[in-house]
Design goal:
The complex is a heterodimer. Chain A has four helices and one strand. Chain A is mainly α. In chain A, helix 2 packs across helix 4 and helix 3 (about 45-55) runs antiparallel to helix 4. The longest helix of chain A is centred in the C-terminal third of the chain and has 23 residues, at about 65-85. Chain B has a seven-stranded antiparallel sheet with strand order 2-11-10-5-4-3-6. Chain B has a seven-stranded antiparallel sheet with strand order 12-18-17-16-15-14-13, sandwiched between helices. Chain B has a three-stranded antiparallel sheet with strand order 7-8-9, with no helix packed on it. Chain B is globular and about 80 Å long. Chain B starts with about 25 loop residues before the first strand and ends with a helix. Classes of the chains: A mainly alpha, B alpha+beta. The interface of A and B includes residues 58 and 106 of A. The structure holds FE2/S2 (inorganic) cluster and fe (ii) ion. Fe (ii) ion (FE2) binds next to helix 4 and helix 7 of chain B.
């Protein structure tokens, strides 16, 4: 599903998700251990992934590259629980929700 | 000791003596009768921003806007002559809602050549003329010219579409005044990539404006957003704005932007360091015209540390412009005295590369993490205000814009009630 240089991330392909809503839901449904292991695998490859993806025009990403970008969007989403919150939910957010109803297409 | 110079009057608040410095009563956010008065005095009489021109790119593009606070629904459409018009979304035959899909309360958008009513198929042109009546001969002396859609005042400023339900209202630009003039020429039209967030909030609409019109709460409520050392430092320093300005009914706050980029990279989260982006947006400005020579209305205090300006266009639009070249709008659409729909739009220059897009993703995701904390706090505030155990609340100098908002609302309500008597 991913470009061959990023084969190490194949085990985390369930984080290849189309929308912020999907990514945020998966974050809420995941344990800290699951997010930590995804983060530990993906974060060191973020720079390399950006370099790789930047060889393509954003509007014409081949499928594997597009998957890689979506996976990196998930990394951005889980960075909050992993780097600061130590929990999936935003602290002090209770029942509040915020729906992303329009997001730029990739 | 203040870090930034205050006006000669001694404080920002005393610089506007009409605001006073005494505690503020929040009855205006819990009294249902007051809410009814606000609908009449404010939302049916002031200019309301309902969107941007990019939402109606071509002839026949339209979108609807539910205005519960003005007891109506509007349809905004680009006509054959390319003009943007707004109509009440009501069919002239028997009052059915004209433009909607399966759920009458939900906003819709699209493109069409004409509007056809679902009920008995009356048709209207994009300019609002009634063009077709099913079995016209069955009617009595019906002149189609008398039954066009009801037009609403609609004017555009810098690509922002505003409507006003009051036919007598002053022109939009005059209403927006000094602040708008000072922003003209900002390259809003280049920033067409949008992230739109929506939420229903269990608080009065003014309380969310209060939360975004002061940053005094930021080092406290949002403390855990920062890495530990930085959070402690921010908490100890507190918050001070660079500059405040009021041109009633509108107001603005100008703030520093030390996080884009931060002087010391260790103070930000690893993901921010890696992507060079965060709450304050991508650290580097996009390569477009118009950002080197900013319009005079930005950074009015002429501070070197400047990071953003946030304008409160009365009654319910916040326009926040960040130094690195992107902007945000917030809208607060009341649905009841203790409820409103919150809408936030983040506008960026379209990303050309994946790296740019990742920076925007981080800015957008970060915005949500903050806004969730803000939104949740408001519901707690609303319930306790409602208890009326405490009715008077002291506001500090950094809460100047709140004082001004509540007073402006009171002035509009009073003027309207007085005129009616
Ligand atoms: S109500 Fe619209 S055609 Fe009858
Ligand atoms: Fe906040």
């Amino acid at each position: 599903m991913l470009p061959s240089e990023f084969a190490a991330l194949e085990p985390f392909s369930e984080w290849i998700l189309e929308s912020e809503r999907d990514r945020y839901s998966k974050r809420l449904a995941s344990s800290m251990e699951e997010m930590q292991s995804f983060y530990d695998a993906a974060f060191p490859l973020l720079e390399q992934a950006s370099d790789h993806l930047d060889k393509f025009p954003l509007s014409e990403l081949p499928e594997q590259e597009r998957n890689l970008l979506l996976l990196m969007f998930s990394l951005v989403n889980v960075s909050f629980p992993v780097e600061v919150w130590k929990q999936a939910r935003v602290p002090d957010s209770g029942a509040a929700y915020m729906d992303l109803v329009v997001e730029p297409k990739v | 000791m203040p870090h930034f110079t205050k006006p000669e009057a001694g404080s920002w608040t005393e610089n506007y003596p009409e605001l006073g410095t005494s505690p503020v009563n929040y009855e205006d956010s819990i009294d249902p009768a007051y809410y009814e008065a606000e609908k009449e005095a404010i939302f049916k009489r002031t200019w309301l921003n309902v969107g941007r021109v990019e939402q109606v790119p071509k002839v026949g593009s339209y979108f609807t806007k539910e205005l519960a606070v003005a007891d109506t629904s509007l349809v905004i459409v680009r006509g054959k002559d390319k003009e943007i018009r707004a109509f009440h979304n009501v069919c002239r035959h028997r009052g059915n809602k004209l433009v909607w899909n399966d759920y009458p309360g939900e906003e819709v958008k699209g493109t069409c050549r004409q509007f056809t009513c679902k009920y008995h198929a009356w048709r209207y042109s994009l300019d609002g003329d009634l063009t077709f009546v099913q079995q016209e001969k069955e009617f009595f002396d019906l002149d189609k010219a008398d039954y066009g859609l009801k037009l609403v005042r609609c004017e555009v400023w810098e690509g922002f579409i505003f409507v006003n339900l009051d036919p007598e209202a002053q022109p939009l630009k005059e209403y927006l005044g000094e602040f708008a003039k000072g922003l003209e020429g900002y390259p809003f039209h280049e920033m067409t990539e949008v992230f739109t967030y929506k939420a229903e909030i269990g608080s009065n609409w003014k309380l969310f404006i209060d939360a975004f019109a002061e940053f005094y709460h930021a080092p406290v409520l949002h403390m855990k957003q920062a890495v530990k050392d930085e959070a402690d430092k921010l908490f100890n320093v507190g918050y001070e704005a660079l500059h405040y300005e009021i041109h009633s009914p509108h107001s603005m706050i100008s703030s520093w932007g030390g996080m884009s980029p931060p002087k010391d990279l260790t103070i930000v989260k690893p993901i921010e360091r890696a992507l060079r982006s965060g709450l304050f947006g991508p650290w580097e400005a996009p390569d477009i015209e118009g950002l080197d020579n900013l319009p005079t209305g930005l950074n009015p205090g002429r501070h070197r540390a400047w990071g953003n300006d946030s304008f409160e266009f009365f009654p319910n639009m916040t326009l926040l412009i960040w130094k690195p070249g992107w902007y945000l709008t917030y809208h607060y659409w009341p649905t009841a005295v203790d409820r409103h729909l919150f809408e936030a739009n983040l506008y960026f220059v379209p990303a050309k590369t994946a790296r740019e897009r990742l920076k925007q993703e981080l800015a957008a995701v970060t915005f949500k993490e903050y806004a969730l904390q803000d939104g949740n706090t408001l519901e707690a505030t609303q319930t306790m205000l409602k208890s009326r155990v405490v009715t008077e609340f002291p506001l500090c100098d950094q809460e100047l814009l709140l004082r001004h908002l509540h007073k402006t609302v009171a002035d509009y309500v009073k003027e309207h009630t007085d005129a009616a008597q």
